[in-house]
Design goal:
The chain is α+β, with helices and mostly antiparallel strands. It contains 9 helices and 31 strands. The strands form 8 sheets. Strands 11, 12, 13, 20, 21, 23, 25, 26, 30 and 31 form a 10-stranded mixed beta sheet that branches. It has a 4-stranded antiparallel beta sheet with strand order 5-4-8-9, with no helix packed on it. β14 and β15 form a beta hairpin. α3 crosses α4. 51% of the residues are buried.
Length: 555
């Protein structure tokens, strides 16, 4: 029996250990069967023009962040734009299933605007995501969750149900399902491989095409190339065109290493007009580690790394101040080489995206980080027994999922795919649609083709950042060459007013361009700048964002 065939045994052993150590109390599970209203969550488009009609989605959530269908209250509607046009009230009825839409919201004043909902019964206020209002936008900000699993591998719920939830409830712009090539729900890897090659992958591509609606909702055909436990990390593979998509699995002797996979994809790319992009994820997780220093890394086919998901953040180790250290599974790797900052120090040009890696039909809103609770009988019946339901019962030591902000001129598959390929993206934690503008020498992540070029290594660089958050801003940190360089201090008061939701700073860097060394042969030739945003929150997990990097090199 080879090591790959032992994958389900490793997973079973790990699962039993986690369940034994984190079993919830029966009392807590019973208490959370009854839903209690907790908050309203309002989602607006992140970019708009003055006078442009907007639709705003409002959800009622319970104490476990589940949708609360029984909510029948109302809320007053106000905005920070005194000239805006909008309804004065939003009301819920039992038939709304916990989700309503406010139509014809029109902002008139340029700038960053918010919508504020006030519960008519309690007076509690709930603030929307920020909306950037301007006469014109070279690029708009679209939001997506592009790392999800369904019953076609080891998840709960089918992709169809997930696409509808992402589109109609979470008001996402982009969704992609990335079911495993060789990992099913406690079945041998070869069985899952046969299922994917036997029709599952084609079916996933067909479903993606059916839901793709240019201008309104974009889907991407994709899968997860999945090394088995203790044999290496995982890589998501995204295609631009379902008609060209091809499944290269991790058990095939021609594609069973990262380098072999990229070789085949380079060959594939030469034969097709459409594109392909790969994205390693949770590289610092000990059971599925991805060592950037031990791989002949291809940052053209893999221009991005999933810096954050429900597993936590692989930006840097917990001992170095990471507020979301990987705790699921076997925890984080202790050796260097597995973190995103290590990839930058090695000289790889990789940007950062966020995803959920959620194994349930809730794109944009993972549920396993919340209080332990039993899914309803309807959810078990409709979605089956997969990790998305099981993890909600136990404390899996997970975090909220992640989101990717796509900076693109249009909401089409080609526009979204080009944003991935050109690193015109950044990452946030769910459900926080934080707006970040970050530039070096006036160039942002969507404008750099390779690196910002300065006249000489002694040339000064102008660095600027502005942030509009979904909660008060606690800190905005500019990271240069993997060290904190400048910080805009905000507030740790989660009840601070809307004036604390924005922050900005600008600086002149007059230090010579130094780069970074990994060893005698590898390193970054230029300086590497990135931004990390942390919000203040009364809840367990504050909202965060990771933006960049922007590379600077002397000509």
């Amino acid at each position: 029996m080879n090591r790959a065939s032992l994958g389900p045994l490793f997973k079973a052993k790990e699962s039993v250990a986690v369940f034994a150590g984190s079993a919830p109390s029966v009392g807590e599970l019973l208490a959370n069967r009854r839903q209690r209203f907790d908050r309203l969550h309002a989602i607006a488009p992140s970019t708009a023009a003055p006078g442009e009609p907007l639709s705003v989605t409002v959800q009622a959530w319970d104490q476990c962040e589940r949708r609360f269908p029984a909510f029948d209250g109302s809320a007053g509607v106000e905005t920070t734009d005194t000239d805006a046009t909008h309804p004065e009230t939003v009301s819920f009825a039992a038939s709304d299933d916990g989700v309503v839409t406010i139509d014809d919201v029109l902002f008139e004043s340029p700038g960053t605007q918010y919508i504020v909902l006030t519960d008519r019964r309690t007076g509690a206020e709930f603030v929307s995501n920020p909306v950037r209002v301007a006469e014109s936008h070279d690029r708009r900000v679209f939001w997506g969750d592009i790392h999800l699993h369904s019953t076609r591998s080891d998840g709960a719920g089918d992709a169809e149900r997930g696409y509808r939830f992402g589109r109609d409830v979470m008001d996402l712009d982009v969704v992609a399902y990335t079911d495993h090539d060789t990992m099913g729900f406690f079945i041998p890897p070869s069985w899952q491989r046969d299922r994917m090659h036997g029709g599952y992958f084609q079916a996933l591509c067909a479903v993606a095409d059916r839901f793709d609606d240019p201008g309104s909702f974009v889907t991407l055909p994709a899968y997860e190339w999945t090394k088995q436990p203790n044999m290496g990390g995982h890589v998501n593979v995204y295609f631009e065109d379902s008609g060209d998509a091809e499944l290269f699995d991790s058990l095939d002797s021609e594609t069973d290493t990262y380098e072999k996979l990229w070789d085949r994809l380079r060959e594939w790319d030469r034969r097709h007009d459409s594109g392909v992009v790969t994205v390693p994820h949770h590289p610092a997780e000990a059971m599925y580690p991805f060592d950037f220093s031990a791989v002949d890394y291809d940052d053209e086919l893999a221009p991005l790394v999933e810096v954050y998901s429900q597993w936590g953040s692989s930006e840097r180790p917990g001992r170095e101040g990471n507020p979301f250290p990987l705790a699921m599974g076997q925890g984080e790797v202790g050796e260097p080489g597995h973190y995103v900052r290590d990839a930058h120090r090695l000289g790889y040009r990789v940007g950062m995206v966020g995803g959920s890696d959620y194994h349930g039909p809730h794109p944009g809103h993972s549920l396993i980080h919340t209080r332990p609770h039993l899914p309803s009988r309807r959810e078990w019946r409709e979605n089956g027994v997969g990790w998305g339901n099981i993890w909600r019962v136990w404390d899996e030591r997970s975090y909220p999922g992640g989101l990717t902000a796509f900076l693109a001129p249009e909401l089409t598959r080609s526009g979204v795919f080009e944003a991935l390929r050109s690193r015109s993206v950044y990452a946030t934690t769910q459900p926080h649609r934080i707006l970040v503008d970050f530039t070096v020498e006036g160039v942002d992540v969507a404008e750099q083709s390779d690196a910002v070029t300065v006249d000489s290594s002694d040339a000064e660089r102008e660095v600027a950042v502005s942030v509009a958050g979904t909660e008060p801003i606690a800190a905005v940190t500019v990271v240069k060459n993997n060290a904190d360089w400048r910080t805009v201090d905000g507030t740790d008061d989660p009840d601070a007013g809307l004036e604390a939701y924005t922050a900005a700073g600008s600086w002149t860097d007059d230090e010579p361009v130094a780069g970074m060394d990994w060893d005698d042969e590898r390193g970054a030739d230029g300086d590497v700048y990135a931004v990390c945003v942390r919000q203040a929150s009364s809840r367990r997990y504050p909202g965060m964002a990771w933006v960049g990097p922007i590379w600077v090199e002397p000509s």
